[in-house]
Write a structure and sequence with these properties.
The chain is of the alpha/beta class. The chain is built from 18 helices and 15 strands.
Length: 487
């Protein structure tokens, strides 16, 4: 928002009065801030960011809701251990630069995390307001505000770093796990080089998350901060092909962190899945987000559809179906085998999708795709489901209702039912212990693999992870590798 970086002089007095005069009871009576957002009818015509951020006054009022808990549980809910009370109190005092500095002590990507982390399941889920049956402090909104304030004020500062120790470490992959690891290691004085297979730095932050949710310009600022700290980035370099594990040793790297992600799409294995017009969510989003499909001046092709079905119920499925609306789909639908309450996607993403005209076909599962005379998908047969007993994840298992099958016309299907780890590193490095799922086996405390100098984190270990969990893995690996290299 235009007034994110401005507070009139009178506001300083108002801010101090607000801070001094509010008792805990008065603070708890302040309603939680609502995030301003673009009108749905407009935003489906463009790729502009939907959430518009808080202005300075909104941020200060929301920060004032914080009750200064003597034993704050919110920090324990953060995978990268941000000093949440510390940065929030700085916002309350109006010292927004200090708030940003607190964030950068532990997080390499605060502006990213403020936008895409599932705070409602992490830090905000631990807020004492939940015990009071009141909405928690909007920690994610405040994190975004502080990071954006510094970025938009053109006075970026860098966290402190130790004197160079001359030890070189390599990072494979520039997604959130790799960037988090790189940030922590460069601050510890290491010479860090990040190798990225693609032509852009950022990994899933660039190819997987649309700009209407996470603008590339925001990601680039965070990456530039790491570059300013001394992190070197090498693009178009595939470790496992361009360079081998042994090559990295010959180049003088004493430690290697693998954050190569989970770029291998999964399909359902049902009849007709190889028809024209059926594609993976990874391919669809990568073509549009990273390769500019549909944008002026870009030649990357992508399939368009007027009736688009996205199979799945996670955040990636929501990204795809909302992207399809922006690519001109008249009808865009989510097809999910469980109910809406069981969807793993963030409530905010489901809400935004509904605002944008997405329809939800829950408790349905595709069983077959039907082709037209040119071999392109024209319809899908879906099985109606009901919920049975909980499965291993605790969610109720979907059970087919016998004979309840219907045909739904579609001309583009995007499959978002999960991904598998990138097999390149596991297949290229001998002696590396790999699980049956194709993930790298690590010590969960240190993220160290069966090879003493190789650590790993994010999707290549978890099979699928949020941005913040991947970042937490990167931080744990950095701490453990630092301790090992100093012995």
């Amino acid at each position: 928002m235009n007034n994110i970086t401005t507070l009139a002089p009178r506001d300083a007095e108002w801010r101090e009065e607000l801070r001094k005069t509010h008792s805990a009871k008065e603070r708890s009576s302040i309603p939680r801030v609502k995030m301003p957002e673009l009108d749905a009818a407009y935003r489906v015509t463009c790729n502009e960011e939907v959430n518009q951020g808080l202005d300075a006054e909104m941020a200060v009022v929301e920060a004032t809701r914080c009750l200064d808990c003597p034993d704050p549980q919110c920090t324990g809910g953060c995978p990268v251990s941000i000093n949440i009370p510390g940065f929030i109190k700085n916002i309350e005092r109006g010292d927004f630069h200090a708030a940003a500095a607190v964030l950068k002590e532990t997080s390499a990507l605060p502006a990213v995390c403020g936008r895409v982390c599932p705070q409602e399941k992490q830090c905000e889920s631990r807020c004492i307001y939940n015990n009071m049956k009141k909405p928690p402090v909007a920690i994610g909104y405040l994190e975004r505000f502080a990071a954006d304030f510094e970025r938009l004020s053109d006075s970026m500062t860098l966290p402190s770093k130790e004197t160079s120790n001359g030890i070189k470490v390599a990072v494979v992959g520039s997604g959130p796990a790799g960037l988090s690891f790189a940030g922590d290691m460069v601050k510890r004085g290491y010479e860090v080089t990040v190798f990225e297979a693609l032509h852009e730095i950022g990994g899933v932050l660039k190819y997987g998350i649309p700009e209407f949710r996470l603008p590339n310009a925001v990601v680039d600022v965070e990456i530039d901060s790491l570059r300013s700290l001394g992190v070197e980035f090498v693009k178009n370099c595939i470790v496992g092909k361009t360079l081998s594990y042994d090559d990295l040793h010959e180049m003088g790297f004493s430690g290697i962190f693998v954050g190569s992600g989970a770029g291998l799409p999964r399909f359902m294995g049902i009849p007709g899945e190889n028809l024209i017009g059926i594609m993976s969510c990874n391919e669809y989003l990568t073509r549009i987000n990273l390769m500019g499909a549909g944008k002026p001046g870009h030649d990357t092709p992508v399939l368009h559809g007027s009736r688009v079905a996205v199979i799945g119920g996670g955040n990636t499925a929501m990204d795809a179906v909302r992207t399809a609306r922006r690519m001109g789909a008249e009808t865009a639908m989510i097809v999910y085998r469980r109910g809406e309450d069981e969807m793993p996607a963030r409530l905010e993403e489901i809400h935004h999708a509904k605002q944008e005209g997405v329809t939800f076909m829950t408790l349905h599962n595709p069983v077959e795709y039907i082709a037209d005379d040119k071999g392109r998908v024209r319809a899908m047969r879906v099985q109606k489901m009901e919920l049975g007993e909980p499965d291993a994840s605790g969610r109720r298992s979907p059970v087919p209702i016998e004979g309840a099958i219907e045909e739904v016309p579609v001309d583009l299907v995007i499959v978002s039912v999960g991904v598998s780890p990138n097999p390149l590193i596991p297949n290229a490095v001998s002696g590396l212990e790999i699980s049956r799922r194709g993930t790298i086996v690590v010590n969960e405390e240190t993220m160290q693999s069966s090879l003493p100098d190789l650590y790993a984190g994010g999707d290549i270990v978890r099979g699928g992870a949020t941005v913040i969990l991947a970042m937490g893995d990167g931080r744990k690996a950095a701490k453990a590798m630092d301790e090992a290299l100093k012995k």
